[in-house]
Design goal:
The protein has five helices and five strands. It has 174 residues and is mainly alpha-helical. The strands form two sheets. It has a three-stranded antiparallel β-sheet with strand order 1-3-2. A hairpin with a 2-residue loop joins strand 2 and strand 3. Helix 1 runs antiparallel to helix 2.
């Protein structure tokens, strides 16, 4: 095998590894979505069990809390940030994402780490910035209270996020 053959073989292996990495990321995204569905179904099932007196409400809170914290600790950072955006269900400021991750027991909740994860998600086409530190799932430009983030409406730069507000609904427009 000459040098050129070795080079071509390594380039082919590099391409194969990239394809495998992309597939692994797709699978991780599918797993995250499936975990979301399972969590929602479990919550609904436990609500029914409480309603019919099969278990007590305080037992539900304890079981859900322990399972939820363990699940969130198992996510890689990008998956956790993506899941946070999904669970929040609306455009969210970095501070809101940080608060959400803290509430889930994450210890990698520094704003710079979240920002880096969002940038990586942006490069994959999974998240988009709206401006002023507000992010949204890719393709989800629905903003609460009828704000239009499009020509003729309110631009993302017009949103001034109040870090003490509960969510983007409390952002000031101006």
């Amino acid at each position: 095998m000459d040098l050129m053959d070795a080079y071509l073989k390594l380039r082919a292996e590099e391409g194969d590894l990239q394809q495998r990495r992309e597939r692994a990321e797709e699978l991780l995204f599918e797993i995250t979505q499936a975990q979301s569905r399972v969590s929602a179904n479990l919550s609904a099932l436990l609500d029914v069990a409480v309603h019919f007196g099969v278990i007590e409400e305080d037992q539900v809170d304890q079981r859900l809390g322990e399972a939820d914290l363990e699940e969130w600790r198992g996510f890689r950072r990008q998956a956790a940030v993506l899941r946070a955006l999904q669970d929040l269900g609306r455009p969210a400021h970095l501070k809101k994402i940080q608060e959400f991750l803290r509430s889930k027991g994450r210890n990698d909740d520094h704003v710079d780490l979240i920002s880096a994860a969002l940038s990586a998600l942006r490069s994959k086409g999974e998240a988009e910035p709206l401006g002023g530190g507000v992010w949204v799932l890719a393709g989800n430009h629905d903003v609460p209270h009828g704000l239009q983030l499009s020509p003729g409406g309110v631009s993302p730069d017009d949103l001034h996020y109040n870090v003490f507000a509960n969510d983007v609904n409390d952002a000031e427009v101006g």
